[in-house]
Backbone:
């Protein structure tokens, strides 16, 4: 297996196209065609992690955070980022980052937090826009069922909790092929009318090339007429954060103690306690101050996240409890999620869970 095949497998389940625009995901360092001897899974691609990869004979590191996030103007050994790049290239180690493509998955970062805290009935807190597209095509009625079944098979037609969704109506199509045409119905240079069905099927945007390929492979016409448009609908299965409920409500002191234990947080910062029970919980791993208003509008009793600044706590407006459990603490279980995901599919070589603690924050 080569690096490109590993990337394709990741992209199938955690599509990189759903990462945020500011992010840097996919292959960060390395060669798509490099043969993979072993994979090291980590939260951060630090120098010590690259050393661990060398020691473990792993020439591919799959990291949650990207080691290259901002512009790099030189690769020396002056900064930790440059040293990681230098050492990885020198030792022929490729590095892949998943980051917000995993943040935005319903089976990613925030679902892992929900499972750890025992949050039930969780759903996306901030559904992502511009992830749903619609195919419209025109096809003879005898070919409709086959085409629809093929597109459904690759994942088209999924809508929330429903699959095989489409809408069709009948009409009349017309065409006249030129001298170079080879029509499957009718004859070249002759005006032809055919009873056709207009088929509309929605699909997630990462499937676009598959949908187009499947359409052309299963449409009888030499030239296939079709339209693809982007929809403004929110996608309830892709987006930032989660919100759900605890099995039973807790008072705020008990909830904070519960978080400390479950998330292994040595220090928890929080907004003013409101003296009410905590039942409905919003969570967002990593830096989540941008989602405070969403948590309030969703009726959350508490919002669990990290990297809250001084002025962020004022945004609670005495409407919910803001809780900062620490950046590393909110994402610490992600490398195990990635590890478990990879080991279910890739059996050709060793996949190693990094033992390096990359948390840069210490407490005294």
Residues:
């Amino acid at each position: 297996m080569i690096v490109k095949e590993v990337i394709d497998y990741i992209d199938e389940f955690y599509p990189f196209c759903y990462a945020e625009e500011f992010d840097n995901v996919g292959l960060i360092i390395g060669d798509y065609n490099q043969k993979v001897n072993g994979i090291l899974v980590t939260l951060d691609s630090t120098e010590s992690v690259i050393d661990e990869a060398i020691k473990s004979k792993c020439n591919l590191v799959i990291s949650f955070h990207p080691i290259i996030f901002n512009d790099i103007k030189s690769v020396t050994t002056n900064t930790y980022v440059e040293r990681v790049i230098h050492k990885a290239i020198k030792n022929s180690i490729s590095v892949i980052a998943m980051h917000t493509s995993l943040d935005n998955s319903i089976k990613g970062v925030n679902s892992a937090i929900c499972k750890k805290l025992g949050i039930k009935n969780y759903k996306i807190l901030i559904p992502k826009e511009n992830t749903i597209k619609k195919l419209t095509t025109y096809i003879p009625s005898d070919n409709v069922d086959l085409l629809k079944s093929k597109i459904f098979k690759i994942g088209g037609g999924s809508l929330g909790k429903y699959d095989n969704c489409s809408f069709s109506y009948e009409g009349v199509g017309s065409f006249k092929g030129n001298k170079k045409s080879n029509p499957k119905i009718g004859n070249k240079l002759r005006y032809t009318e055919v009873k056709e069905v207009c088929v509309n099927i929605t699909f997630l945007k990462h499937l676009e090339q598959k949908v187009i390929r499947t359409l052309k492979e299963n449409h009888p016409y030499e030239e296939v007429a079709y339209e693809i448009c982007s929809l403004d609908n929110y996608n309830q299965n892709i987006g930032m954060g989660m919100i759900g409920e605890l099995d039973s409500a807790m008072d705020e002191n008990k909830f904070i103690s519960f978080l400390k234990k479950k998330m292994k947080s040595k220090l928890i910062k929080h907004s003013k306690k409101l003296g009410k029970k905590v039942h409905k919980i919003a969570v967002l791993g990593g830096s989540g101050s941008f989602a405070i208003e969403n948590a309030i509008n969703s009726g959350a009793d508490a919002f669990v996240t990290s990297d809250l600044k001084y002025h962020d706590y004022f945004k609670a407006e005495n409407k919910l409890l803001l809780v900062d459990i620490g950046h590393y603490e909110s994402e610490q279980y992600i490398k195990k999620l990635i590890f478990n995901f990879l080991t279910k599919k890739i059996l050709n070589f060793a996949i190693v869970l990094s033992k390096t603690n990359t948390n840069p924050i210490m407490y005294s």
Observations:
- Residues 220 and 357 are 57 Å apart (CA to CA).
- The chain has a mean pLDDT of 95.
